[in-house]
Amino acid sequence: MVASQGAEGSGALPLRSGGSSLAGFAVFTLTSTGHIASWSVTAARFFGFTADKVLGRDVCDVLLTRAGQRELVKEALTQVAEGRIWTGIVPVSAASGSYRVTIHCEPAETPEGGVLLIARRALPEPGLGRTLPEVATLIGTTLDLNRTAREAAEVAVPAFADGITIFVSERLLAGGELGPHPVGPTVVRRLVSRLAGEPASVTDGLFRPGEVQVFGTNSPSYRAMTARCPVLFDQLDEESAERVALRSERQGPAAQFTSFLAVPLVARGTVLGSATFARTAARDDFSPSDIALADQLASRTAVSIDNARLYDRERRTASALQQGLLPTEPRVPAGLAVAHRYVPVGASIVGGDWHDIVPLTSGRAALIVGDAMGHGPEAAAVMVQFRTAAHTLADLELPPEEILSRLDRMAAGMTSAPFATCIAAVIDPAARSCEIAKAGHLPPMLTQADGDTSILDLPLGLPIGLGSGSFEAAKITLPAGATLALYTDGLVESRIRPLDEGLIALSDALSTALARTTYPLDLICRQVSQALRQRGEDDMTLVLAKVADAEG
């Protein structure tokens, strides 16, 4: 292939594929050092420069004058010198205007060698402008903090930027609450980084998710978070620059970034962190319209991140409550087997139900099941007071009726005027006996070894909090192989199932599961709970207690 010489040469050059017209294309050649060696009529028309103005000059002084573009040219020359083809999209500054062009570079088939370049107008960047409302719905599809950050990065790269990093304040992750932005260096944690054209595994290796970093007061990201407004800059901080340099050594200088934009992440009036967008020399610098778009994208991301962190805080709080309030594996006395199952309603982890197993002297054990009115955090706050008091009273080896009486007096002195139902039982495995008293609670069921199940008739008692102060216990015998079931109303009653039908369903489930079975009591407890669980409208608790057979 021979390039034309001078401004009035033989005209357009044919492409390697044949005689297609080059209308709308520009063809010219460079020396191996990047100086313009030939300039065709198509190049003159395309860029608006005549040959006498450009021949012999460095192409970077003529067309590619933006920061970082000399590195692009160097990369292209190196690729072609090694016999490979280089293509890229770059913004140019020419006499005919500034615009983006696609450049194809390959070895020139001339005696002097060099590089043949074919340029044409690039299609408009896809961008996010018209589609932002649509793509914004792709952010925050879950309440997972890290996934939310990854979704925001996937929306931004490569449609809007060539790279992105999202940071959140370490205080937000550690404490869950943020006050005014502090003065001085700020500790942040990287949630995600993404680079165009790189798989997530490569990017994560360079910019590790979860890595802690300190923003100094001169950092653009710090300034963006402090001023609550976007900050443009053209040079990375030293630490990040070293990481990009490592990537450049492997992938080539084309990976260098030349335009950066730090945008604060602000949600509900609080600065959560920052997002840093980056573009390479192959793309236009961030413009005022880009800044406005990045601000919208950051706002959407911030709200989604805040939703995720609020959910995570509530989940961790509830989990801590669950770990702290629900009983650990009990120390059950010899000769007694106990299984328990608690199922909270809806998305709650703890609610108003509680149960406890308290080992006593002489091989006895106290079993307590209660239900504070309501469910969710409010009921849980009341429940923890009742459960703690009931455990303490049982540990004093008080009889069941006295435990309930003291709980009732305690409730009268509480400012929230709480109400609860409760049943307390003290089992003596050696004597195969059980003393039980209830306060407004549903009666227990007793299932014999052959599966016959009956509801125990106990003295009535008003719920705790009504101030009755008077409760009566009954003493029953536990036959060999019999199982005692204590439960809350959520297991047997709902809007779609009346109480009497629920009690029948529980009786049938216990009979079926316990009739001459060798299954572990824990598995039976789980099976019965699952069988009774319909449309959960209240917390559900089931406790099963069985005295071991004589030969056991």
Please name the defining characteristics of this protein.
Beta-Lactamase, six-stranded antiparallel beta sheet, Phosphatase 2c, domain 1, single chain, elongated, five-stranded antiparallel beta sheet, 32% helix, 552 residues, alpha+beta
Q: Can you tell me the residue ranges where pLDDT is under 50 for at least 5 consecutive residues? A: 1-22, 250-255
Net shape: elongated
CATH domain class of the largest domain: Alpha Beta
- The gyration radius over C-alpha positions equals 38 Å
Mean pLDDT: 82
Q: Give the fraction of residues assigned to helices.
A: 25-40%
Q: Report the CATH superfamily of the largest domain.
A: PPM-type phosphatase domain
Summed up, what is this model?
This protein has 15 helices and 21 strands. By secondary structure, it is an alpha+beta fold. Helix 6 (145-156) packs antiparallel against helix 11, helix 12 packs across helix 13 (400-412) and helix 14 (499-514) packs antiparallel against helix 15 (521-532).
